[in-house]
Design a protein that fits this description.
Layout: H1 14-45, E1 67-80, E2 93-101, E3 108-112, H2 114-117, E4 127-132, E5 144-149, H3 152-197, H4 202-222, H5 226-252, H6 261-269, H7 275-286, H8 288-308, H9 314-343, H10 345-353, H11 358-362, H12 365-398, H13 417-426, H14 438-441, H15 473-486
Antiparallel strand pairs: 1-2, 1-4, 2-3, 4-5
Helix pairs in contact: 1-4, 1-5, 3-4, 4-5, 4-7, 5-7, 5-8, 5-12, 7-12, 8-9, 8-12, 8-13, 9-12, 9-13
């Protein structure tokens, strides 16, 4: 979806085209071998389909004469529980719903377990899944037993609203990101999961599968550009570091992965499945989203800073972009920790009530895996930021000081987040201003210079406080003052 802009019809200059070609050749020389190696690894590790003999009991399977059904709640009443909770007081009462079964005539009564009705108020119109015991019921009043709620409609509505919001705000790029997410699901479902069941090396499965996902998703969502390629290199580096640290941590901490019923069910299903291997693969995959976010942002920040001050040295460019990166490090570390804390509140409350020593609590099997997951992902994330920034600076300086590459074919009508970060870094006080001394390190400019090609959406005049030569007004005053002192 294109946007109208004064520069949208301007043809790229000769310098811009040359810069684009040099950047693409430089990055292609690195990324093409990496991509070929990833595809080769995927081919060698591709599941053979020999896991059909692995059988896991289906919790929703029923014996003869029994069936699963769904129905809609018509009304509710309160009556003595047919099956009271353990240690419940005598005469415990339960919610009894009168349901209209789907595709059936009449009505049936289903008792809602007291622990469920205590948390959720069942009202008319709710959808419930229940089991019909048929002739196997000992008590005719307990022929129908509650299984779960049917949540298809509200979840589908929430997913539709999410997709609509993403597309409305991010437009075509948001739609591509959603389609990329679907592609990532296909890789996990058809490559990683079957490979783990067959006993393929979990470290290689996680690393190769994650690399394939990132290669496809980054280019599909963000387009083919030097910025995206730079971010991909930083992401792959972060994945390698995460994989190595995860492999060491799972062994050094003796993490078994056996912490709930699902883990034990898989362990007993077949000897080919390694629960600790599944844990290792999960450690690699769990940090993909945040890692991708910081690398693409760092890459864009470097390119935008280079546009605003093309004469800046590599050292100053790296220092300015890293100030943005440090902000990302701080915020993403909080994000990872709080995301786990929010999901594990019941476990944290239970452990807090057990009155155990703090060190014993955090090193127990219930918490150790998640703490290791957080630390491993954070290490890969933190190290990927300076590496991505360094790669971006090297590429920018290697291809020359011409206009930076557009992020993709879309023309932005307002500054991007990376542009905002770049201008913010430039406008900071002298102690942290990377543009304050550009002209001290650059050669004196001739009286007349060839005007540089304009890049849509990145005009210096569009950013308040930035002069046409890339200096903030504050930095210009400081530079002029310093010149007066020297003279």
């Amino acid at each position: 979806m294109g946007h109208s802009h004064a520069h949208s019809t301007a043809e790229p200059s000769v310098d811009a085209l040359a810069t684009r070609r040099r950047a693409n050749r430089l990055l292609a020389a690195i990324l093409i071998p990496l991509t070929l190696a990833t595809v080769l690894g995927m081919a060698l590790l591709w599941p053979s389909g020999s896991s059909d003999d692995v059988q896991v009991g289906n919790p929703y399977s029923v014996a003869g004469g029994m069936s699963f059904q769904t129905g809609t709640v018509e009304n509710t009443t309160v009556a003595p529980c047919l099956y009271p909770s353990a240690n419940a007081p005598e005469g415990q009462e339960c919610t009894v719903t009168e349901l209209v079964p789907d595709g059936g005539d009449g009505r049936v009564s289903v008792e809602i377990p007291p622990e469920i009705s205590r948390e959720v108020t069942v009202v008319a119109g709710d959808r419930i899944r229940f089991i019909d015991l048929g002739d196997r019921a000992d008590n005719p009043a307990a022929r129908y037993s509650f299984i779960d709620f049917v949540r298809t409609a509200p979840m589908a509505l929430l997913a539709a609203v999410y997709a609509l919001v993403v597309v409305l705000v991010a437009r075509w790029r948001g739609l591509r990101a959603l389609l990329g997410l679907l592609g990532a699901y296909l890789v996990v479902a058809n490559f990683i999961l079957p490979g783990l069941v067959e006993g393929k090396p979990p470290l290689l499965l996680g690393l190769v599968g994650s690399s394939v996902i990132m290669i496809a998703v980054l280019y599909f969502a963000h387009g083919f550009s030097a910025r995206t390629s730079t971010a991909l290199l930083g992401t792959i580096f972060g994945l390698v570091i995460t994989s190595l640290v995860a492999a060491w941590a799972t062994g050094a901490a003796n993490l078994t992965g056996l912490n709930d019923d699902a883990d034990y069910t898989l362990s007993y299903a077949t000897g080919s499945i390694s629960i600790s291997g599944i844990l290792l693969c999960g450690l690699i995959i769990s940090g993909l989203g945040v890692l991708n976010d910081v690398t693409i942002t760092q890459s864009s920040a470097v390119w935008e800073m280079h546009e605003l001050a093309p004469e800046s040295s590599a050292r100053r460019l790296f220092a300015g972009a890293m100030r943005v990166g440090r902000d990302h490090i701080a915020s993403t570390v909080y994000t990872i920790v709080f995301a786990y804390a929010g999901a594990a509140l019941p476990l944290l409350i239970l452990l807090s009530l057990q009155d155990r020593p703090f060190l014993e609590t955090i090193s127990s099997g219930e918490l150790a895996e998640e703490i290791v997951r957080t630390l491993v992902g954070s290490i890969g994330l933190v190290l990927a930021i300076p590496v991505t920034t360094g790669i971006a600076v090297l590429v920018v300086k290697a291809v020359g000081s011409g206009p930076a590459l557009p992020e993709d074919s879309e023309v932005e009508t307002s500054p991007s987040s990376a542009q905002t970060d770049a201008v913010s870094a430039i406008n900071r006080p002298p102690r942290v201003s990377w543009a304050a001394g550009l002209n001290h390190s650059a050669a004196p400019r001739p009286a007349a210079t060839k005007p540089q090609a304009s890049v849509p959406g990145t005009s210096l005049e569009s950013h308040p406080g930035v002069s046409s030569d890339g200096l903030t007004r504050r930095s210009r005053r400081q530079h002029d003052a310093g010149a007066d002192v020297e003279s």
